[in-house]
Amino acid sequence: MSIISKDIQKAIQLLTDEQLVAIPTETVYGLAGNIFSEKAIKSIFSTKKRPFFNPLIVHVPSVSSLENIVTHIPKKAKLLADAFWPGSMTMVLKKSSKIPDLITAGKDTVAVRVPNHKVTLELLKQLPFPLAAPSANPFGSISPTKPTHVESYFKDDIKMVLDGGSCTNGIESTIIGFENDEPIIYRLGALALEDIEAVVGKISIKNKKEVSPDAPGMLARHYAPSTKTFLVDDVALEVTKHQGKKIGVLVFNQSLNNDSLTEIILSEEKSMQKAASKLYDSLHELDHLNLDVIIAERFPDNGLGKSINDRLQRATFSL
Ligand code: AMP
Ligand code: MG
User: Fold this and answer.
1) What digits encode the pLDDT tens for the residues 52-96?
2) Residue 215 Cα: closest atom of ligand 1
C-alpha cells in the first residue's frame, strides 16, 4: 500500500507518537520529526544515514515563533524574516537552551525557517511543537520534489508522506548565517541573492567547498545522481566526447535536436524559476534510465541561475 496520503490528522498522530512523516514544502520534501523527541530526531539521522555533525533545520509556523527558538535576533534578521517568511530562506541564529544539542550538532546556533506551503503551515499551526526537517532523501543523493520521490527512497522506513503535490520552488532554501550581526550566505538556494540584497544590501557568500563545512549543503559532492554527471557550457561539444555511450542531456531552454540523446529541456520559455522547480525531478528521471552519462548545461550566473549552478556543480564530476 502507498504511504502517500493527504490526511493531516494522521500526520499529527504519527508526529505526536514520535514517528517521522515526510512533509511538503515549497523547496523540497522534508523528513520531519518533533524537535523535542530524542527518538524522532535520532531516527531522522538514521533513516537518512546523515552524519550527526550535520545540523537540522527547525520549521516553525510564523515569525513570532522565533522568540521561543533563539536568544538574539539581529536587526537585519528581523528585516529578512518580515520580508521573506513564509518562504525559502533559512536563518542561522543563536539558539535558546530549549533547543536540543542533537538538532544543532552541538553548535550554539540553530537553523530556522517558516516554510511557504499551505499544508505544512496548517500542520505546524496544529502541532504543539516545531518540526526538525532535513530534506527527505538519503544523505548525498538527489533531493525529493514529489511525494513519489520520497516513497521510492523510504517506503520501508517511514509510515507516511503527507501529500502536498510537487514543490513549486524545487531547490533547497537559501541559508543565511550572521557574524557580528551581519548576514552571510551559507548556502545558495531557492531565494535569489539579488532579492536578499535588495533588503539588507551587499552580502558575502561563504558557500565554498570546505573540509569541515558550516552547512552540509556545502560539501563538494552532494545532491548527486548515481549516473556520472558533467556540467558544461557547451553541451553539444561535450556530447561529441562521449560517442557510443547512452547519453542524457539536461538543457536550460534550447533543444540540441539530436535524436540519439535523451533530452530534458528545463524551461523552453527561459524561466529560471520554472527550471529550478523541474531540476531535481529531471535528474531523478535521467538517473533512472540506465544511462552512461548525464550532461548538464551551465546556467547564466545570476538570479536563481547561480543557485541552480551550485546544485549542478555538486551533482557532477566537474570538468
Ligand atoms: P537539508 O535540510 O538536508 O538541506 O540540510 C539542512 C541544512 O541546514 C544543512 O546544510 C545544515 O548544515 C544547515 N544548518 C542547520 N543548522 C545549522 C547551523 N546551526 N549552522 C549552520 N548550518 C546549519
Ligand atoms: Mg539535504
Assistant:
1) 999 999 999 999 999 999 999 999 999 999 999 999 999 999 999
2) 12
Q: Which ligand is nearest to the CA of 109?
A: 1
Q: Which ligand is nearest to the CA of 107?
A: 1
Percent of the chain scoring above 70 in pLDDT: 94
Number of H helices, E strands in the chain: 10, 15
Together in a domain, 160 and 244: no
Of 133, 131, 161, nearest to 10 (Cα)? 161
* In-domain check, residue 267: yes
Residue type, 206: K
Which of 27, 31, 49, 54 is the best mutation target for the ligand 1 pocket, counting ligand atoms within 8 Å of the beta carbon and taking the most?
54
- Give tens-digit pLDDT for 102-119: 999 999 999 999 999 999
The neighbourhood of ligand 2, an ion, using CB within 5 A, equals: 135
Question: In terms of residue numbers, what domain contains 244?
Answer: 228-314
Q: Both 193 and 242 in a single domain?
A: no
